[in-house]
């Protein structure tokens, strides 16, 4: 099976051809898990590397992720029947008082593209709602987004809420958003900071593998 | 005559820089409006400012005042604008004149939290959008957030074209002049016009993610919309020939995160170059509101014809440092960078020494070079006004070798 072809199609964002390739591969007897790992996730890992190297940009990353998700929709019922598990689960949201969702959405797409299960709480999410979602979904990571200097302090409150709910030690906290810095992330007690979606995906992989 | 009396005003310093000349001091001019509104709404405006106008506060603090004023509006011929707020009728007008198009920031309910929904009903169809305002945003003096964009499906492009084809320009130059004159020597009204067409599509018509998908799925439709918006922008620029102002700014909210070098080269650069040629022919300088990350665009902006990058927002607001932008442009006559001091350095949580070190470094690097200092993107509600005052005093002390 020439997985390089699927990697190429996903990388170029050709959702239609990538889906057709996936269906043909399944008919030919390919394992869904193998298509996922060697085709889709391999493609998105490469896309992340190209993005980090400045060779492609957000639009190319998004259309690649869309092609990946199209193929994943074909595989998912079959993966659910087997013993294939996701790379990990991430709860994401934009913090209370902030309704900017572009960065958060792109991070969610990239995380899904990297094989994570993503629970998107949306925007204007209260600290309590984040904590309740961690209790309910038991994620490996909670990702907090804020675009505004006025709302980034809410991230600290979310971490306090996780402590109050007794789930801080069960989950890694990753933060991102235009005004944030690595230093600020450390200051508020977050476990990781990501400056963009590709790095968020990389940091998520590191956080999960470190557990 | 005392030394103070011989000093130039902030306005004159700004005008000198825009004229390609050297002022006696670096201009320090930006917006306190958001800070003022946030402090007023939350009852935390310092006592000393309570009976002062915003312009008077600027004068007392020592920072010049800038305000974006739209000198040209648009009459939407053949369009009925229907606006609801939280589901209740709020505003309806046939063939309205709006000053933010394709955005509708001038008619959005800003004083109460909720959803402002607007529909544009035309003979060829209806397009609609939605702006959201949170209480937190009101308290901070923030802008509403466009959460539903005008174009969501193929037919919406046709409606958008129709509106653009039928709209009429409505200059309000006299009002612009009166507002500008009202600032006296303290401030300056920026003639702000619509974004370049690509930014209109990216931020207003479709939104970022839909634009990126559309560029892949339906590039002809995107190009046609950009072409239509370009024609209207050319009309706006022609109209501005009658406006006596030295500076016009495209309110682009440019950031390389979205308008990356590839997209910028294809969709932005040719337009900037054409617009610059027109405005330079009118004796005006052209700027852009560039409050995002510029690092990947520095070389392209240098060849764009832009004279000013206003609201330059360095780290920690973006990945671009002041040194990087100064290394790229400091030795050039244009573009001038306006902004530079990131608002987080004015927050109480940040040690004052960090602000001091940053400003000292900027002043040392600038030397006798040309720059317009401000607080990027603006002075926020939670910023310390005494730090603004400190910057103003420090810049005032920065005598330059050229005098």
Tell me briefly what this model is.
The complex is a heterodimer of chains A (211) and B (403). Helices cover 58% and strands 11% of the residues of chain A. Chain A is of the alpha/beta class and 211 residues long.
Question: Any overview of this molecule?
Answer:
The complex is a heterodimer of chains A (211) and B (403). By secondary structure, chain A is of the alpha/beta class. In chain A, 58% of the residues lie in helices and 11% in strands. In chain A, strand 3 (141-145), helix 7 (154-164) and strand 4 form a beta-alpha-beta unit. The longest helix of chain A is centred in the first third of the chain and has 24 residues, at 58-81. In chain B, helix 6 (154-166) runs parallel beside helix 10, helix 9 crosses helix 10 and helix 14 (352-366) packs parallel to helix 15. In chain B, the strands form 3 sheets. An 8-stranded parallel beta sheet of chain B has the order 1-2-11-12-13-14-15-16. In chain B, strand 12 (247-250), helix 11 and strand 13 form a beta-alpha-beta unit. Chain B is 40% helix and 21% strand. The mean pLDDT of chain B is 95. With 403 residues, chain B is an alpha/beta fold. Chain B has helices at 3-6, 10-18, 33-41, 54-61, 135-140, 154-166, 173-182, 197-205, 208-217, 219-239, 261-281, 298-302, 322-329, 352-366, 385-397; strands spanning 29-30, 64-69, 72-75, 80-85, 88-94, 97-98, 114-122, 125-133, 145-148, 168-171, 187-193, 247-250, 285-289, 308-312, 336-342, 372-376.
Number of strands of chain B: 16
Helix residue percentage of chain B = 25-40%
Poorly predicted ranges of chain B (pLDDT <50, ≥5 residues)? none
Overall structural class of chain A, as computed from helix and strand content, comes to alpha/beta
| Global structural class of chain B | alpha/beta
What multimeric state do the chains show? heterodimer
- What pattern of helices and strands is seen along the backbone of chain A? HHHHEHEHEHEHEH
% residues in beta strands of chain B: 15-25%
Q: Quick one: overall form of chain A? A: globular
């Amino acid at each position: 099976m020439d997985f390089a072809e699927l990697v190429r199609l996903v990388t170029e964002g050709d959702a239609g051809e990538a889906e057709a390739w996936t269906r043909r591969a399944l008919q030919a007897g390919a394992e869904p898990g193998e298509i996922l790992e060697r085709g889709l996730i391999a493609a998105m890992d490469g896309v992340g590397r190209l993005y980090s190297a400045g060779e492609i940009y957000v639009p190319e990353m998004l259309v690649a992720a869309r092609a990946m998700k199209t193929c994943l929709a074909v595989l998912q019922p079959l993966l659910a029947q087997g013993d294939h598990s996701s790379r990990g689960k991430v709860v994401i949201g934009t913090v209370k008082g902030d309704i900017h969702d572009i960065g958060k959405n792109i991070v969610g797409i990239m995380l899904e593209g990297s094989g994570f299960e993503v629970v998107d709480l949306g925007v204007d999410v209260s600290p309590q709602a984040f904590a309740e979602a961690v209790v309910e979904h038991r994620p490996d990571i909670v990702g907090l987004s804020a675009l505004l200097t006025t709302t980034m302090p809410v991230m600290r409150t979310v971490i306090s809420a996780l402590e109050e709910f007794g789930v801080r030690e069960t989950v890694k906290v990753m933060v991102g958003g235009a005004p944030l810095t690595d230093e600020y992330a450390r200051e508020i007690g977050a476990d990781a900071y990501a400056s963009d979606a590709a790095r968020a995906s990389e940091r998520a992989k590191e956080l999960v593998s470190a557990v | 005559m005392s030394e103070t009396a011989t000093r130039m005003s902030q306005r004159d310093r700004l005008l000198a820089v825009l004229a390609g000349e050297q002022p006696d001091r670096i201009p320090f001019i930006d917006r306190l409006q958001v800070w003022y509104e946030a402090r007023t709404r939350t009852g935390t405006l310092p006592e000393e400012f309570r009976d002062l106008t915003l312009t008077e506060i600027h004068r007392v603090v020592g920072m010049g005042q800038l305000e974006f004023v739209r000198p040209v509006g648009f009459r939407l011929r053949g369009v009925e604008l229907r606006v609801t707020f939280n589901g209740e009728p709020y505003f309806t007008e046939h063939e309205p004149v709006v000053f933010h198009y394709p955005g509708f920031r001038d008619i959005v309910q800003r004083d109460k939290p909720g959803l402002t929904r607007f529909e544009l009903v035309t003979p060829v169809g209806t397009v609609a959008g939605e702006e959201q305002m949170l209480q937190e945003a009101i308290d901070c003096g923030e802008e509403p957030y466009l959460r539903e964009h005008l174009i969501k499906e193929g037919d919406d492009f046709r409606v958008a074209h129709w509106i653009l084809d039928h709209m009429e320009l409505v200059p309000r130059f006299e009002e612009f002049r009166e507002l500008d004159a009202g600032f006296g020597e303290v401030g300056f009204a920026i003639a702000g016009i619509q974004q370049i067409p690509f930014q209109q599509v990216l931020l207003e018509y479709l939104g970022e993610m839909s634009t990126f998908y559309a560029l892949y799925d339906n590039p002809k439709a995107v190009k046609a919309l950009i072409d239509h918006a370009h024609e209207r922008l050319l009309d706006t620029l022609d109209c501005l020939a009658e406006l006596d102002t030295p500076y016009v700014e495209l309110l682009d909210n440019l950031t390389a995160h979205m308008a990356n070098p590839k997209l910028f080269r294809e969709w932005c650069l040719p337009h900037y170059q054409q617009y610059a040629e027109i405005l330079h022919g009118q004796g005006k300088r052209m700027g852009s509101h560039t409050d995002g990350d510029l690092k990947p665009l520095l070389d392209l902006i240098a060849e764009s014809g832009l004279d000013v990058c206003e609201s330059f927002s360095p780290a920690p607001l973006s990945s671009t440092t002041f040194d990087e932008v100064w290394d790229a442009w400091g030795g050039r006559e244009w573009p001038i960078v306006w902004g530079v001091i990131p608002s987080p350095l004015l927050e109480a949580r940040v040690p004052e020494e960090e602000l001091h070190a940053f400003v000292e470094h900027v002043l040392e690097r600038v030397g006798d070079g040309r720059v317009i200092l401000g607080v990027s993107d603006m002075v926020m509600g939670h910023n310390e006004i005494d730090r603004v005052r400190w910057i103003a005093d420090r810049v005032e002390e920065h005598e330059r070798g050229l005098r």
